Amino acid sequence: MSWFNYYGLIAVILILIPNIILQIVNKGAFNNNFNNKPLQILEQIGRYGCMLFMVFNIPYTYFGFWFDNALLFYLTIGGVIIVIYYLGWIIFHKNNCLAKNLWLSITPTLLFLYCGIMVSSIPLIIFAVLFGICHITISCKNSNQNHKEKNDGNITRIH
């Protein structure tokens, strides 16, 4: 694999498509009720680092595939993870729940981490771990916050 990873670019585009569509269709879809600026900044650093290193292989920071026919595994397992990601969008399209938030935060993390391991890209592995920790945490906290706000609005008093 050369310095430019076409397969990684395609994977990043495929991961972004449902997010872009949702943002166009429902402008308020990405409500972040969990306000932790340092964690949000680290998440964005992880996200853009993952996207960058999925597409660009910087010399001396990646070592390429480490077994025969690895490209086939890279594409097959990566494709399966992307299909699982899309299934999450389909299954949970009407719901806003913890399961959806976890599904849609864990699967891209797994994709980035898997791809980093397969091409032995140290920066991609590091950014995938950073992104995963922050993105999954923020997704869980947002789900808990949304659930709390929903329940606070529906409190009925018993006299």
Layout of secondary structure:
Blueprint: H1 6-25, H2 37-55, H3 70-91, H4 98-118, H5 122-153
What does this entry look like structurally?
With 159 residues, the protein is mostly helical. Helix content is 72%, strand content 0%. The protein contains 5 helices and no strands. Helix 1 (6-25) runs parallel beside helix 3 (70-91). The longest helix has 32 residues, at 122-153. The model is unreliable at 155-159 (pLDDT under 50).
Keyword list:
159 residues; globular; 72% helix; disordered C terminus; 5 helices; 0% strand
Low-pLDDT segments, ≥5 res? 155-159
Strand residues, percent: under 5%
Instruction: Specify the number of helices.
Output: 5
- What coarse outline follows from CA principal-axis ratios? globular
What gap, in angstroms, lies between the N and C termini? 70 Å
**Main beta-sheet strand count, sense and barrel state:** none
H/E order of the elements? HHHHH
What's this, in brief?
72% of the residues lie in helices and 0% in strands. It has helices at 6-25, 37-55, 70-91, 98-118, 122-153.
